[in-house]
User: What shape does this take?
Amino acid sequence: AYANAPENGLVRSRDVQGIRTTVRLIPPQLEALRDRVTNATDLDSAVKEQDRQLCFLVNLGPDGKHFKGDVMYSGAQSKEEFLQQAYDLNFNWEAMVSLRCGGRTYAPVLSSLENTYSLTKDRNVMLVFVPETSGDPAFYGSEQLELVIADEHLGTGVQHFTFDRAALRKVPQPTRRTWPAPSAPGTHASPAPCGSCPRSRSCRCWVT
Assistant: This one.
């Protein structure tokens, strides 16, 4: 919830040509929680590991006013254009996006477009950037992070999404809550996930 609240400075959104582009700067704490840590020591180590990189989640979807269809079909006028568009949106983000910070430009080392099999009209793209060296001063020292998306397919053109690194420093550290023990294995007495569930290894009560 904290990371998704616009007032916390981790979310930027813009509507262009019927397409809404929403960019989220993912805090290392959130990425660490996805590693399914089970104790405070592991969590701290995971946060430090994730803090070595910068992760962005880009959501592309219809704005609901000027365009209401599946974003993967937006802008395509022929089968050939659709196939090229689908290929680029799946595999060519390295050529379409860059991160500018400290006077330097970085390409993503990892990009992943989720495949929803057309069950949703929007798509999420995870982008990961890493420094060129272990102590890269531009990557770690820049107070301003600018994600540049150069779209040649959906009609949104070149968009700039700027974030302040200070927003990452303000993210609350994860804490562990104690929830009532489940009444039976695999069930929860509380609506929140509980780390004591023996049947579901994905359950955990680490929250932000």
In short: Helices lie at 28-33, 40-50, 79-91, 93-96, 137-141, 166-169.
